[in-house]
Amino acid sequence: MASRSLVCGAGGGGSKNNPVLLQSERVSCSTEPLDSVFISGSSPSFLGSRSMFSFGNVTGGKRSMVSFEDSNGGKRTDGSLFHLFDPEENIDDELDEYLHQHEKKRRLTPSQIQFLEKNFELDNKLEPERKFQLAKEIDLQPRQIAIWFQNRRARLKTNHLEKDYKELQARYNNLKADYDSILMEKEKLQAKVLQMSENLLFTQKEKGNLESQPPPPNAVVGSVSDDEVSKVSMLACSDVLDSDSPQYNYVFSSSYFEPEQSDLSHNEEDNFRRNLESLPAYMFPNIGYTDCSEPSADSCYYGFLVEDQSFGIWSL
DNA sequence: TTGTGTTTTATTGCCTCC
DNA sequence: GGAGGCAATAAAACACAA
Q1: Which of A15, A42, A233, A273 is most enclosed, with most CB atoms within 10 A?
Q2: Taking the model in full, what pTM does it have?
Q3: What is the C-alpha to C-alpha distance for residues A72 and A55, in angstroms, rounded to an integer?
Q4: What are the 10-residue block averages of pLDDT along chain A, 316 residues in total?
Q5: 3-state secondary structure A136-181
Q6: Superkingdom, according to UniProt (predicted)?
Q7: How far apart are CA A225 and CA A218, in angstroms?
Q8: Is A301:A237 a contact under the CB 8 Å cutoff?
Q9: What is the pLDDT of residue A135?
């Protein structure tokens, strides 16, 4: 029968699901007998009989076995207490208190840590044979070596997670900055387009007033109300004008740009066209290109092709 | 000195693998 | 079913400001 009289040496650690179960109430000795055997046979600071002081439990198949030494390398667990750890004997509260006074967690020395770090760099997994070897070399228990490696792996994982998080955050910030700046640029360009279209219509209206001529039957300008002028723009078209770029075809309304009827100079036209060319394709979503050569087309607009995708202008 | 936050050591329970 | 790894957690040890 597993005894509850044996106490794990560790000062730390509580039960996740049973906080009431304290060290003094835990049961049995180490289930890693080799650890004790090894230590008792090889460690000058851990004598054979002392292995009996490596107490722990077997709850859930786990083992606890840690010895405590003071800073001088002496055992903190008094050998005179050995008789108190008879597996058949219960530990009373006084003994429990006594043990808690003496069983304090001991930090590893800097040299031990340095040694372990070096070995961790070589391989962060611990084979049993290596565990015993390391324990022997720095005078710790194999169980302590295993615990140290386990905690070290956990720290490494945490560090990696933190690093990954920071990298992702930086990338996100960069992308967001790009997005924001593109958004601003888009708004500026949209405003520019609106301004240009309004200027054009205004010019057309001015021209109509000056010449006092009725608009041609197909001309849209004359039928555009002031309200419409404020919100819409380019209309019908029939001619496909070649652009310098093979990917761009501009379509201008013949009624707008017929040389003999338009007071837009060729230079103005060219400027307008160039301005349009400078606008990115995303400025004109949701508007399809139509072949404006159809004479029956009632509605007219500028359209242009960008890399085989159709874009048109627009309703703002 | 003391309160508080962080780090380190160790335990526990669960899970996977053999 | 045992061994070992991992996540969660406890608690001692430590650092440090007030």
Answers
A1: A233
A2: 0.51
A3: 22
A4: 30 34 32 37 30 36 47 34 36 45 76 95 92 94 95 94 91 96 97 95 86 52 42 36 34 34 46 52 41 36 32 33
A5: HHHCCCHHHHHHHHHHHHHHHHHHHHHHHHHHHHHHHHHHHHHHHH
A6: Eukaryota
A7: 15
A8: yes
A9: 94
Type of residue at A11 = G
User: How far is residue A252's CA from residue A303's CA, in Å, rounded to a whole number?
Assistant: 8
Cβ-Cβ contacts under 8 Å for A21 (sequence gap 6 or more): A15
Residue keyed to tokens 């900055």: A177
Determine the nucleotide nearest to A147 by Cα–C1' distance: B10
pLDDT reported for residue A152: 96
Tokens 């009632």 belong to A298
Q: What backbone torsions phi and psi does residue A289 show, to the nearest 5 degrees?
A: -95, 135
Cis amide prior to A314 (ω within 30 degrees): yes
Residues engaging strand B (CB under 7 angstroms): A 8-18, 21, 23, 26, 56-57, 59-62, 64-66, 68, 105-108, 113, 143-144, 147-148, 150-151, 155
Give residue A210's pLDDT: 74
* pLDDT reported for residue A103: 58
Residues in chain A: 316
Spell out the residues 6+ positions from residue A130 whose beta carbon is closer than 8 angstroms to its own: A119, A123
The CA R_g of chain A, rounded to the nearest whole Å, is: 43
d(CA A167, CA A11): 38
pLDDT value of residue A209:
79
User: For A238-262, b where at least 16 C-beta lie within 10 A, e where not — what string?
Assistant: bebeebeeeebebbbbbbbbeeebb
Shortest-distance nucleotide from A68 CA to C1':
B9
Distance A274 CA to B4 C1' (A): 68
